[in-house]
Amino acid sequence: MQFDSIIAQRLNLQLKQVANTLKLLSEGATVPFISRYRKEMTGGLTEVDIQEIQLQSEKLAELEKRKESVVKSIEEQGKMTPELKKRLESCMTLTELEDLYLPYKPKRRTRAEVAREKGLEPLAKILMCQLNNDVEGKAMPFVKGDVKDVDEALQGARDIIAEWVSENESARGRIRRLFSHEAIIQSKVVKGKEQEAEKYRDYFDMKEPIKRCSSHRLLAMRRGESEGFLRVDISPDADEAVEKLDPLFVKGVTVASQQVQMAVADAYKRLIKPSIETEVAAAMKEKADDEAIKVFSENLRQLLLAPPLGEKRVLAIDPGYRTGCKVVCLDAQGNLLHNETIYPHPPQNERSQAMSKISKLVEAYNIEAISIGNGTAGRETEQFIQSIRFDRKVQVFVVSESGASIYSASAVAREEFPNYDVTVRGAVSIGRRLMDPLAELVKIDAKSIGVGQYQHDVDQTKLKRSLDQTVVNSVNLVGVNLNTASKHLLNYISGLGPQLAQNIVEYRAANGAFTSRKQLLDVPRLGAKAFEQCAGFLRIPDATNPLDNTAVHPESYGVVEKMAKHLRCSVAELIQKKDLKQQLNLQDFVTDKVGLPTLNDIMAELEKPGLDRREAIKVFEFDPTIHVIEDVKIGQVYPGIVTNVTNFGAFVDIGVKENGLVHISQMADHFVSNPADVVSLHQYVDVKVIDVDLARKRIQLSMVL
Question: Is 689 helix (H, G, I), strand (E, B) or coil?
């Protein structure tokens, strides 16, 4: 089935954009390749647009698969009608499909099924006609066998009617709409668990309309519920719900009508409410998951694209107290040259010996920068290093060590450093993160980097997919040096993967550095399609052809050569001389395959060939007067670093162990709907302390100074 028009309508895109994108995806093109090199076909769709088209296509394919299963099930029961089949085939949502299927869905042994086995369905039909006041008289003939008395007969009939009500499409639609507009979500602490549930104190007795319940509050309540501390309920007013249902089923004012009314009330309480509540809760959870995953992915993107120090000789320190600070020296390419341990902090307090060692290492290895992990003893280690007078200018940086311990114990780390323990590997990771965050962080499972909210509570499959795609997009946005990139970094390049990345590294080791992109075709199993997808994202700084160190795709080299020929110069001269490029009229080079979007990209790349898109790194210093939370003064303004962005605000490191929270209401002097519009990960900000809760170790901050 063709989904083009449906997706175009849902995403408010042109049909041609969607159709061409789906065609490219079906041919094996990747998201980064399509967004960068097929702008003419997609009308300039972004990576986010393309990913959404891909996701919608998969959802529609799943819906079609479910439709086939439902149709087959109903046909096997011999209950399919032309009208029903037409309605099933025209369903556009899974909810609509399941509502239609509900009356035909094979059931477990329900109360209604038991009543049918007792022969009470005819009585249920009599009651539904609602023409009789003598319901007991009508029930008497059914008092036989397993039916002991009239009350049991009527109860069984009501059970059957209740099931009919619960399976009615209109009834479910009315209650679904009521839930959507009027339902209240409330959480209460489980009696007797008040102390254990202290961290959920804000949700001990909380109640609010579900349409106003934010994703982070929902995820917090659900976590508290799963841990056995909270009870969560979602429901509208029960009387109002039954009033919505009665007009559909209760006709007249007979005694039979009263029986039907009782069945309707029972249907809502016992069948419809639990079902719709589960459905609404799942939809809310899915929405909350999507929002949390979006925040996590954006934070990860910012972390991956953090400014790199570049190829500098680095001394890295993984701080610690009792076990000391692990120190490593790295060359400009990140190779380990030396490692040892110093003990400048309690309990050893070997401060002078540690200062002497660091000074000698800086001199011996010609160190240009020092990278310090921001974990335990990180602040004290930074101050210790700042107190040393070196014989040269040495920049000092504090870097996030989130996930470093995961890396140091991983198979990747063992493969890189088989002869060193986890502490050395962790220190190396801290140093390399400073040199090139992107190249180092791709070695760590993105979930372990710790820049999200409730990442363990959201749909893990969705989370992994989103984070993996974020890594792919980030790596391809920056591009990598073909001759220095690790197999872990190459793995994320468009069109490659673990095997081709390994093959490239092995080919490089056996044949020396690549001198041209064309050589990629000599790599085992790297064919024309993989070359098409990956070549534009791989850079060769000293290549024979200068275009090999740009994001210009090899398929467009002919266009650049044509430009150079038009100006009677070489490609190298065209790149180097700005005045030559200004003489070009891009319209002269438009063809049926190459349009202005591609030509504009080419010109932008020729302006800055091989230039890293990431910003330049800056040194940051915390306020020297604070070291622990007790030092923090209310009303004081401190410099800080944004360490995490959530839907409800941002966490800021001001130099003490506990990160402070800038609530969304304190981010600006105007209304802020999304914290990401105001701050980004690792941004340097000035914040004012508005409250310090020493008992709960919480700091409240404001960016409104």
Answer: strand
Q: Residue 637 region, left (φ>0) first, then alpha (ψ -120 to 50), else beta? A: beta
- Between the CA atoms of 161, 162, 168 and 172, what dihedral angle is there, to the nearest 10 degrees? 160
pLDDT tens for each residue of 166-211: 999 999 999 999 999 999 999 999 999 999 998 899 999 999 999 8
- Residue linked to tokens 């600006």: 668
CA-closest candidate to residue 256, choices 153, 411, 138 = 138
Contacts of 683 (CB under 8 A, 6+ apart): 641, 642
**Which SS3 state, helix, strand or coil, does residue 592 take?**
coil
3-state SS record for 39-100:
HHHHCCCCHHHHHHHHHHHHHHHHHHHHHHHHHHHHHHCCCCCHHHHHHHHHCCCHHHHHHH
Distance CA 234, CA 145 (A): 41
CA atoms of 385 and 380, how far apart (whole Å): 9
What single-letter amino acid sits at 178? L
Residue 517 CA to residue 609 CA, distance in Å, equals 15
Q: What is the pLDDT of residues 204-231, one digit of tens each?
A: 999 999 988 988 889 899 999 999 999 9
CA dihedral (447, 450, 453, 457) positive or negative: positive
Distance CA 321, CA 376 (A): 8
Instruction: Indicate the residue type of 371.
Output: S
* Residue 270 DSSP class: I
Q: 684-693 and 637-646 as β-strands: parallel, antiparallel, unpaired? A: antiparallel
Please say if the pLDDT value at position 451 is more than 80.
no
* Overall average pLDDT of the 516-529 stretch: 97
- The strands making up 230-235's β-sheet, listed across from edge to edge, are 205-209, 184-189, 230-235
- Dihedral over alpha carbons 6, 10, 13, 14 (to 10 degrees): 20
pLDDT of residue 448: 79
Q: How far apart are CA 215 and CA 220, in angstroms?
A: 9
Pairing between β-strand 369-373 and β-strand 314-318 as defined by DSSP bridges: parallel
DSSP H or E run through 644: strand 637-646
Angle formed at CA 649 by CA 647 and CA 650, multiple of 5 degrees: 115
* Cα 148 → chain centroid: 59
Name the nearest CA neighbour of 451 among 309, 302, 658. 302
Angstrom distance (rounded) from CA 175 to CA 480 = 54
| Cα dihedral sign, 556-557-562-563 | positive
Determine if residue 484 is left, alpha or beta; phi over 0 gives left, psi from -120 to 50 gives alpha, anything else beta.
alpha
Cα–Cα distance measured from residue 251 to residue 258, given in angstroms and rounded to the nearest whole number? 9
Q: Are 267 and 162 in contact (CB under 8 A)?
A: yes
Residue 658 identity: E
Q: Is 29 helix (H, G, I), strand (E, B) or coil?
A: coil
Q: What is the identity of the amino acid at 659? A: N
Three-state secondary structure of 417-474: CCCCCHHHHHHHHHHHHHHCHHHHHCCCCHHHHCCCCCCCCCCHHHHHHHHHHHHHHH
